[in-house]
Amino acid sequence: MTDPAIRADGLTKRYGDEVAVDSLDFAVPAGSVYGFLGPNGAGKTTTMRLLTSLTDPTAGSGEVAGVPVTDRAALTPRIGYLPADPPVFDELTGWEQLRHVARLHGLGDDEADARIESLLERFDLLADADRRIESYSTGMTKKVGVVAAMLHDPDVLFLDEPTSGLDPRAARTVRDTVADLAAGDATVFLSTHVLPVVDELADTIGVIDDGVLVAEGDPEDLKSTAREGSAADLETVFMEVTADADAPLPDA
Ligand SMILES: Nc1ncnc2c1ncn2[C@@H]1O[C@H](COP(=O)(O)OP(=O)(O)OP(=O)(O)O)[C@@H](O)[C@H]1O
Q1: Mutate to test the pocket of ligand 1, among 12, 37, 45, 82 (most ligand atoms within 8 A of CB)
Q2: Where are the domains of the chain?
Q3: Family, per the entry (predicted)?
């Protein structure tokens, strides 16, 4: 059996007395899509920051593409990360921003230009590539972030809300791109509140609540564990597994 592309072993992050991520254990096979769900403040972003070496674990360990998550220098070339608000330089054009990202990854200019052109075309941004990002809409800036995350053809891609702010056509392109990547060898860790996106794309879904992984399984299996059985949708599963133990379930 091949090693998982992402592995968390007791991965924990505390901020003072607050436990943001509490002893997470999971493994994501290479070439699959892992949908990561959870209520606001559940620990999704912190988990992605741990797995992308942007913050160190307080306890436990993680490995991505066979590299310990504490080895930032070795990990960076192997991963791409789209944060919820992609970091961009407003004064650069879209093309310049992506050239800058490509150079950080050590791509040669010719190779970078070919990749940038093809990805911008896919995301329908080529005609605006020479405009400054300060003049872009939210969705256009998001597209730059999406392209930047996949520019160096990473083994593992972490996407935080990749379709938010995108029009339906662009959102479709992102979903198709994620499916294409996973149909190759890439692994995608996808965090979103848009449940139909996860339902469509994820091979496995993990639900985090209050820092704890409260449910995990393939979408159909998770639905069949809901109280109403296999007729349940993902929203019902989400409501059930993240319900406060003391609070009544909605419509219960
Ligand atoms: N730098 C920080 N310092 C202190 N507490 C933090 C820090 N970052 C996150 N937290 C806390 O950790 C918990 C998890 O936050 P996180 O941002 O990971 O949640 P999330 O699931 O991504 O939420 P959302 O869906 O709202 O984006 C929250 O209680 C948050 O307040």
Answers
A1: 45
A2: 6-86+154-241
A3: Belongs to the ABC transporter superfamily.
Question: What ipTM was estimated for this complex?
Answer: 0.97
Residue nearest to atom 30 of ligand 1 (CA): 41
Nearest atom in ligand 1 to the alpha carbon of residue 47 is: 18
pLDDT in tens, the chain (252 residues): 578 999 999 999 999 999 999 999 999 999 999 999 999 999 999 999 999 999 999 999 999 999 999 999 999 999 999 999 999 999 999 999 999 999 999 999 999 999 999 999 999 999 999 999 999 999 999 999 999 999 999 999 999 999 998 999 999 999 999 999 999 889 999 999 999 999 999 999 999 999 999 999 999 888 888 777 666 788 988 989 998 755 555 554
Beta strands in the chain (DSSP E): 6-15, 18-28, 33-37, 59-64, 67-68, 79-82, 156-160, 187-191, 204-209, 212-217
* Fold of the domain spanning 6-86+154-241: Rossmann fold (3.40.50)
